[in-house]
Each structure stands twice: as structure tokens, then as C-alpha cells.
Amino acid sequence: MSAEKQYIELYNSQRPLIDANAAPVLNACRESAARVLAEVGLQKAKDQTHTDPSEMLAADYAINLARHEVPTSREDLFTCAVPEMSTSVHFLVNEQYVGGKHRDNGYFAGSLREFATQYPDIASQYYNRLASQPTDTGDPRSRRYEACSFGESALNTMLCQDGFVLYVPSGFEVSKPLQLISLLRAVDDLMSVQRLLIIIEDHATASLLVCEHASRLNDLSHLLSLQVTEIFVGNAATFDFYSLEEHHDLCQRLGQIYVHQKAASNVAIGLYALTAGQTRNRVHVCLAEPEASIQLYGMATLDASQQVDNLTFIDHQAPSCQSNELFKYVLDQKSRGSFLGRILVRKGSDKTDAHQTDRNLCLTPDTRMIARPELEIYADDVKCSHGATVGQLDQNALFYMCTRGIPESEARMLLMFAFMSDVIDGIRIEPLKDRLRHLIEKRFRGELTQCKGCAVK
Amino acid sequence: MREENKSEDVLKDITSGEYKYGFTTDVETEVIPTGLNEDVVRLISRKKGEPDWMLQFRLDAYNWWKEQKRPEWGHVKVEPVDYDKISFYAAPKKKSENKEVDPEILKTFDKLGIPLHERDMLLGNMPSQGSGESMMAVDAIVDSESQKTTYRDKLAELGIIFCSFGEAVREYPDLVRQYLGKVVPTRDNYYSALNSAVFSDGSFVYIPKGVRCPMELASYFRINSSGTGQFERTLIIADEESYVSYLEGCTAPMRDENQLHAAVVEIYVHERAEVKYSTVQNWYPGDKNGRGGVYNLVTKRALCAGDYSKISWTQVETGSAITWKYPSCVLKGEGSSGEFYSVAVTNNYQEADTGTKMIHIGKNSSSRIISKGISAGHSQNSYRGLVKVLPGADGVRNYTQCDSLLLSNTCGAHTFPIMDIQNPTAVIEHEATTSKINQDQLFYCQQRGIKEEDAVSLIVGGYAREVVQKLPMEFAVEAQKLLSLSIENSVG
Amino acid sequence: MSNPLLEIKNLHASVAGKEILRGINLTINQGEVHAIMGPNGAGKSTLSAILTGNPAYEVTEGEILYKGKDLLAMKPEQRAWEGIFLSFQYPVEIPGVSMVNFMRAAVNAQREYRGLQPLTATEFLKLMREKRAVVQLDNKLANRSVNEGFSGGEKKRNEIFQMAMLEPTLSILDETDSGLDVDALRIVSDGVNRLKSAERSSIVITHYQKLLEYVQPQFVHIVYKGRIVKDGGPELGDRIFAEGFDWIRQEVEL
Fold first, then answer.
1. Residues 6+ apart with CB under 8 A from B234
2. Could C77 and B7 be called an inter-chain contact, meaning their C-beta atoms sit closer than 8 Å?
3. How much is the pLDDT for A56?
4. The domain containing residue B103 runs over which residues?
5. What residue spans define the domains of chain A?
6. Domains in chain C, please, with CATH?
7. Region of poorest pLDDT, from A5-14, B85-94, B130-139, C100-109
8. Would you tell me which residues 46-75 of chain A have a C-beta closer than 8 angstroms to some C-beta of chain B?
9. What is the ipTM of this complex?
10. A360 contacts in B (CB within 8 Å)?
């Protein structure tokens, strides 16, 4: 049986249980999601990436539809590698919101299920609005680049019961960054169907750091995190979203981030993979109104057999928008990476400024890097560029440092660290910047192995 | 001095904007019935007097092809081709038994600026050229048959074989058999299989060991008949330490129908040999409303088999309704190098999806890609490329630059490169930019009194110069003119 | 008897919606040299952009007569053919286009407009050689792409070389002296002076005294906040160099 059929059957047989443990707004979207899933299926990746969603989802995972409580101690959660960064810390264990520090002073941060129950009007206005509709690029020649992810989004929508919501109403400024610690934890093979919904209304400001962790309770159980994140940013609103991943080798992550930006909004997205099992992130940014800007950064430091694929799609739909993308990978041992970045500038989107850079270091003969930057442009008054490089450490610089008495290993570390510096500089939360520098240094020094590094055991 | 005369000619010629090569030649032509089946393949083979192994090669290709589906990838809208409406063989009838070329054909080539007399061997109407006349041998192909190959005897003295493909099959069967389909296997893709089944004529070149070919070799392709396609096949073999520069030009009459051109070019480069392959592609692009024009669906590939071998592709693509071609380099030899220089201009409703593949297999192999796309009108212009470094290929270097220039707000310019790197010692760089014509440059020219249209032409010429100057002199002039003509009336 | 070449009347202009010129009035007669001075951002370069028809600038009010004709109705290239030349403050680089081709296109377009035959290659190269000597421009520069890889000083000399080639009736030198050393400045000024005649006029926009010493304008105008706030002779220039613009500011603000 194909993977999607297995899930659709599960859904059909467990519908009452799924609904009972969710909220009406979430339940209302399931039928159409099931139809989409049946129609488009879980397609095989054809785009020269390493991870294959249809294969990843083919395994027979348990899903916690009955919402059994996962035994987790507070101590486990609080040993995240990025401590004390925020006064507002929230926790997800698998997909389930298990609480956090939140003083309700004008905005909502908490459980998706709770939000959808308490504020059904707002929730239904936004929930599943981005993840359910394929983009029509307006040109028949243009491939439905993002189409193959809609099966995954539909699967998430069909089964989704909980997750995290950040809702910041018009004009409100959340001054301190929020932190969401997301922990994968199970004794047996488990799929977490996780959902994030972020709504930043007009002129509002917020920033969110998501720390992705996974407990390694034994050497057998595989954990798959199927994530859908929908981000709505209103007129002249500002939002920063950083995802820091420290997964272990038995983890798989299928992440989809949809961003919708209104006029003059300003968004920063950062995807930082310190350690990973198999990760496939898709980021779909829609610059829907004039003068919106997005800064999309990503980084991966990989070794062993880790695989990270980042697929980004920035859709310039309106004039005078800016996008700036920077992705950097360091690949060691047998790791594999790919970056597929597509920029679409639609007809009439004049004064578009779109730039993309992808730089990669391969350290051993067994690594493999695929870079695929794409520009698709239907307007004439634009400035667009992309640059991609694959290479190794500068041997001259290495030699120069050695002649000054710096040991080679140290010199290599310094150069790798320097290589990553600009992708860290893009972070707009100072304590996070410092923390990440520290973590990357540890990572390069080999002090941050997958098990030790993830403070959560 | 020479350089300047060249540009003067160019500037003088930017006056008439229409496709200049759209006339037809009135010669008696033999056209076989339309449609494609096994009998047609046999008929073509019989007409060409081919040996049995050649027929088997064709049949094998045909049998595979008929099972395949038409590929739909690429950023182009290709209307399905009705193979039942195409005649797969058309050839001007010879006037007499003594193999004389029909005077009408000679006139045609004269009109195209390709004289088929060995004496006045200058390409192009360039009376102002004073010195440095270079020699050029020409293979002239109309529809399915080669009409004449000049300088054959002179080249034969050096052991160089330059003849039509048909003759090569008859006269050098062992060489053809040894190399045919080695670089582009029959089953490489849909159109290479189609070509392998029905290919008509083309050029065959063999340069023996250690020989530098003393003149440019040129093939000139012309589709004349209506309701036909052209399926030429070119095979170039450069033996050890040899050198050849080969040129290819093409034109077709203006017709309302879409004519199919599905060629295969194979180049085999031995140790320390070097091949330069230049194309000025000017098939009929269709009219202002996108009606008619040639579908140019071509497979071109060079295998740098020997160590330190070198291949350089240079192309100026201004014609065709649809262009779908990726002249590629398989860099197998140690220290081998591949280059790809391309200017693709699209105007009106033309669509071009072109680029290259650099497959690095050999150690220390290097490649360089310079692609300049210029889009105007309602056209679509895409660069598509692959740089692949296999695990054993240590020390590979690649530099890629692809720039797109937009001349209208109704056209599209796209860049689809892939880098697949499986060796950590590779250094791969890719840069791409897309922008409209620089308004400061335009105003600067206008302030000096240069008309807007001329200023655009001048700036576009400058933009393409890096590629155009890689062409041999005579082609460079032709290419400059074509560039100016192609973008004419594109300034809104 | 004065013969007006250029008459600017109540000129208002803006760039990107921002008003820069707020009512300029200026008349230049044949054979006159005018200097325009003023603090940064006063609108000096905007004026030169308007005179040459730069599409990035918009005239919102007023008129300009050149040889009695409506200048604003002319395209940039037509203004060039009519003899208006701008030495750009920031000359533009045009990669791949050689100076020779560029200049020939310009010279022959002008000749065509005046009903003359285009120059032959030999005539043209002879002209290039002659004019190059005027500004001591290296032969090598003439064979390179337009302004590409030129130093700041070379670019400015290249502007004067083009001016010599095109023999304009009205030349506008927009801070041609900035970034030049003393020797280069003298070469540039010599080039400008050689073109002086009873028919030709110039507008010199500058911050520096040296160029005015060499070129010797009869009239000096001070532009401030988009208007000409003071007219005078050479002595006005001297006072600006001695005292700066502060006294102008004070006078105007009062």
C-alpha cells in the first residue's frame, strides 16, 4: 500500500478520536486535506535532493492521536542549549503543547488547540490558509515547483491536533524574544504532526526562536517530525523567526514554512542546523504587497551520514520588494547537503531587488553537495542575482596561519568559523547570536556531538 | 583598422529589420511521402545507398523512439509535432549525371553570403576587408542532402577528411562505425533517437594525429522545402594532438508552419587535441505574432576522451521559434578542458532554453561557462546548466557566469543551473545576474547624440562582446549584425 | 549686442517626487562663460540633468528656450545634435563598447542630423588622433571600452576629449575638476579654453577656485535651495572661496 493510503485509512478509521482531541477549526479542514492527499499523494522527490519524503513517510510510525501524555521531566526541557534567552519560554513535546511561561499582556502565545477553541474566529481566518493552496505562477511553462510538498502539508492538516500559536494583535510590540522548545520523545517509532501558526498583525513586532531537540531513549526508535508552519505578517509589521536544530541520527524532519507578507512588512527567517538526521525544509515566501522585505538565512554543519536539504521559493508578487538569501553548509565525513533556491519575479513586480548566495565547504571525498539556484523573471525593472560556490578551505590562508604557529586543526577551525560568520551576523537577536557562535565553535571543535550536544537526554 | 571596419559594416547594416534569409529557392526537389514508419527508415537508408549495419543502427533507434514519450521539460511551450505531416527526406534533384550543383543552389548560397567556389573563399559580403583573408572550406547542405564540399582535395593532402556524412558512410565506413553513437548514444534522449533513425546528411570531419587544420571548416545548413524537417548528423573526430576550428550556420525560408530541426552533433577529442565549434544559429524565428518558425531541438556533445584534450563551444543563437539545446562536454581525460560561450537573443514570441552540461570525470579537468541571454518582446529565454563533478575527479575547476538582459516588461529571463559536487577538491563558482538595460549607460549615449535604438544596439553589442569575440572573424561580423537585427524594434 | 543662446524661465523640477529646483531663471548669451556655485544638494547637478533631458528628472513648471526653440520638447539625443554637451560628474562605464565605436556612432549621428555624410574610417581616426592630443589622452584609452577601468582623472579627460570631438555650442562642465590633480586640471582647462569662441558658451559647475582661475567665467551664480540667490561677476566667486557659503545662507534666511 502506498504511504498516503495508509494514512488516509488511519484517518478514516480514527476520525472521531482525532476530532475529539482537537478543536472544531482544525477538524473543519480535515476532509479537504484528505482529498488533496488522495489526489496529489506523497510524491517522490524528483528535484535532485537527498531526502525523499515519500520514502521517509513510508515507514509505519505511531501517531499519538489519543493524546496520551508523554512522560517528560521539567529538567529534561530546561537543559536546552540556548538557556535564559527569553523570559517567555514555551514547550512542545512532540506536537503537544505542555505549557510555558506566558504572562498574557496583550498577545497570545500557547497551544494551538486552546487558541482554536478560545478564538475560533481568528483561528479560522488564518489556519491552513497558506498550506492548502498551490501557487499559480501565472506562466504555463513554470513548473509547479512547490506542488510536491502539498501532499505533506495535507497529511499534516488531516491529522493535526495541536501545536503552537503566536498571535500578536495590531500595533502590539512583543519586546522580548519568545522561545519555543520543541522536543521529540518516544520509546517507539513515532511521527509527530506538528503545527505552528504565527499571526503578526499590522504594525506589530515579535521574534521567536524555536529550538528543535530530540531525546534518544534507545538506539532503535525513529522519530519523524512532520511540521507545518504558517506565518502571516501584516502591514509594516516585523517578525523574526529562527529555528535551531539539534536532532540526532534517528530523527527525520519534514518541515514546511509558509510566509505571507503584506505591505512594508519586514521578516527575518533563519534555519540553523547544528546537527541533524535527515532534514528537508521547504520555505515558501510570498511577498504579496509592495515594499515587503525578507531576509532568509540558513546554515548546516554536517558530518556522519547527516543529510540536509533546504528548498526555498521566494515569490515576488508586488513591486519594490526585497529579498536577500544566504545559505552556507559545511559538509564533513559522509554527509550530504542540497540547496534549491528559486526566486520568482512576477509580471509587474518592478523595482524588485532579489539576491541569493549559497556557499559550501566540502571537507571529505565522501560528501556530496548539490546547489541549484534558480531565477525566473517576468518583469524588466529588476535587480536580481545569485551566486553559488562549492569549494574547500583556502589552502593559502591555512598555510599562512600555520607559518604563524597556529596548529593546522586550529587554523581549519578558525577558517570554518570565519566561513559561517556572516550567516550568524544576520541574526537580529543579540544573545542568540552570541550563543550560536559559541555552539558552532563547539560543533567545529567536535565538542558538540549529537548526543552530548542535545542537552536533552 | 580591421576591427573598426568591421564595426562600421555592422552599424551600416542595422537598417533593415526583417529576416533577410526568408526566401525560397526554386529547384526541383524530391520529397518522399510524409509520415514515419519502419519503411520510411528503410527508404532513407536505401536512397543513401547505405550498408546494412547503418540500416540496423537506424532501425534500432526507430524501434526505441516509437516507444518513447515526447519530453515535456524545459521552460518552453512546444506544440506537439505531428510526425505524420512531415516528410523525412527531401533533396534537390541533381540537374545532370555529372554531379554538377544546380545553378539555383549556387545562387542561393551566394545570396546567403556563402560562395561555393574555391577561389573567392571569403565568407560574408565584406569588400572592405583588406588583409588577413582566412581560408574556409564549406560543406553546403540543403534539406536532406549535401550539395557540395569545397577544398576536399587540398585538405586530403594533409590526411584531413571533410565530407558529407553520407559520403563518409560509403567511403570511410570503419571510421564512422567506430565513432558513431559513442558520444551521443542513440537512446540518449527522444530527439537523438529520432535523429539516429532518420538523419539525412551532415558533415564528417577527421583530423589525423598531429595535424592542425589550416583552414576553418564550415557547414552551412539550409531548410528549403516546406513540410519537411532537417535531421542532420555531424561527427567530428580530432585525433591526438590535432586542432580544428569548425563553424556551423543555418537559415530557413519564412513559412507559417513550424519546421522541425533535430540534429545530433558528436565530437570525439583525443589526447592533447583541440576542437573549437562555433555556431551562428539563425533559423527562421517566426513572425511578429509568433506564427511559424523552426523548432530547433538539438543534441550536441563533445567527449574529451584523451588527457589534456580541449573543446570549446561558442554559439550565437538568434533564430528559431523554439531552441532547446545544451552543447555539452564530457571531460574524461585528465587535465581536459571544456568551454561554453553563448549569446542567446529572443524577440517577439521566441523561446530559448539553452545552456550546457559539464561532466567532470577526469582529474584536474576544468570548465568555463559564459552565457549571455537577451530577451525582448514577448519572448522567454532560459539558461539551463549542469556542472557535475564525479567522485574520482580531483582538482576540478569550474567558473560559470550567466547574465540576463531584459529589454521589455513582457518577456521572461530565467536561470536554472545545477551544481552536483561529489569531490571535495573541486572549486566551483557560479554567478548570475538579471537586470534591464542600464539607464545611465543609455542616457550617457543619448547625451552624446546616439539615438536610443542605436544606443541599445551598441550596449547590447558590448554586453555580448565577450562571447562574440570568441568566434572566428567572419562569423563575428555576421553575429554582430544578427544581434542588432534581432533586437530591432524591441525598444518600447 | 547680446544674443541669447539659453533662456531658463521659472524652472521647477523634481526627482522621485522631491522638488529640487524651485524657480530658476537664467539667461546665457553666445560666447559667455557662466559659473554656477552652491553648497551640496543645492540643485546644481539637477540643473545639468534637466538641460540634457535625463529621464529620471521631472520638470514640473517653467520653460527653457535654446536657440529660441523649446528645449524641453527635445529628446536627449536631439539636444546633443543641437550642440548641448554635458561633461558628466560621474562618467558612465559601458563594458564591451569601444571608445572608437562609441564616438563614431555619436559623431556620425550628429553629422546625419546636420545633413552631412558620415566620416570614413580614415577621416574619423584622423579626427580622433587630433582631438586626443588636445587632452593628452592615451591612445590605449581610446581603444578600451567606454570609461571601463579608467581612473577618475582619465574619465574626466575622456569627457573633455568627447567635448572636443563633438564641438558643442553649449557645454556644461559638471564638477569636471573634482578628483583631478593640478596637472590634469590644467590639461582639462586648456581643452576647455581651446573650444572658447564667440559662438560657444559654457556653464561651469564647480566647488573649486582653480578651475575658475583657468577658465575665467564672466558671470557667477549662486544656487541655494533650488533657486539662484545671487548673481555677480568673478568677484563673487572670489568671495565664496574666501568665506564659504555661510554668509549666503544668512542673507537668504533673513
1. B165, B202, B203, B204, B205, B219, B248, B263, B264, B265, B266
2. no
3. 86
4. 2-487
5. 3-304+313-324+408-453
6. 4-253 (3.40.50.300)
7. B130-139
8. 48
9. 0.85
10. 421
